[in-house]
Specification:
Layout: H1 2-9, E1 24-28, H2 33-43, E2 49-52, H3 63-72, E3 76-79, H4 81-89, H5 93-103, E4 106-109, H6 118-129, E5 134-138, H7 149-159, E6 163-166, H8 168-171, H9 180-189, E7 195-198, H10 202-212, E8 218-221, H11 226-234
Parallel strand pairs: 1-2, 1-8, 2-3, 3-4, 4-5, 5-6, 6-7, 7-8
């Protein structure tokens, strides 16, 4: 049967795991091992990372079983920037570094809420990147940041960030148009494989896949939307099937 499915699907430029680009980052708001196994069985080939949302890792039951479930399906767990900011605000960055090394998980470094001097941010990216993979996030969570996103992204990458995540609220706040000017500046100045665009909502997901292609890096994808996003990427849903992403 799988040969018949493969023949019907046809050739595709979609990257395969382990991917360097075209990654999909799941937003985990409290999934347990059984739910992760279900997701992994059906969508594991289409999901690369799982961001354990906010500071929920600190209060999650069955944490080790949860992390193990992700790894069984080739999905790498990581913590979001909120937990880093919580640790920084409470003087516990060193404790966080020990924890992520112990768990062998990736970390996101951001300053969406806290005030973090630019040079200190770069030093912390370098410090964490020497021990674990770092995703840096640019943009504000409570209000938009007055920031040269291109210059900041280049600095974060030079400091050791694996990829730069663009905060979804900066790209297109909920219910508002996407800031195509910001997206175009970033795409003109930086390799697309180095950037992750947070795309919680369907209009953002479709926009980036049509604008960049099937192998754009997307973050903050809800579990219920994993299959939808992969169908968008492969031209298997009405939004993209007449102009199948390349």
């Amino acid at each position: 049967m799988m040969d018949m499915v493969t023949k019907l699907l046809g050739p595709s430029s979609r990257t395969e795991k382990p991917r360097g680009h075209g990654i999909t980052i799941l937003l985990d708001k409290g999934l347990g091992p059984n739910a992760i196994d279900d997701i992994g069985t059906v969508c594991g080939a289409h999901c690369d990372y799982a961001k354990i949302a906010w500071g929920s890792l600190l209060i999650s039951g069955g944490l080790e079983a949860k992390i193990a479930a992700y790894r069984r399906h080739g999905i790498e767990p990581k913590i979001g920037g909120t937990l880093f900011e919580y640790a920084y605000a409470n003087g516990k960055v060193e404790d966080l570094l020990v924890l992520v090394q112990e768990l062998k998980i990736h970390v996101e470094i951001s300053d969406g809420v806290i005030k973090l001097p630019r040079q200190e941010r770069l030093a912390l990216i370098s410090k964490f990147a020497a021990r674990v993979n770092v995703f840096s996030e640019l943009g504000g969570k409570l209000s938009a940041h007055d920031l040269d996103f291109v210059a900041a992204a280049k600095e974060d990458l030079a400091a050791g960030a694996k990829k730069v995540v663009i905060e979804g609220r900066e790209v297109g706040p909920v219910g508002k148009p996407i800031r195509t000017d910001l997206v175009d500046r970033l795409l003109e100045a930086l390799p697309v494989e180095d950037m992750v665009f947070e795309s919680l909502e369907r209009p953002q997901q479709v926009f980036f896949i049509k604008r960049v292609g099937a192998n754009v890096n997307l973050g903050n994808i809800l579990p219920k939307d994993l299959m939808t996003v992969e169908c968008f990427r492969r031209g298997l849903k009405e939004h993209t099937f007449l102009d199948k992403p390349v």
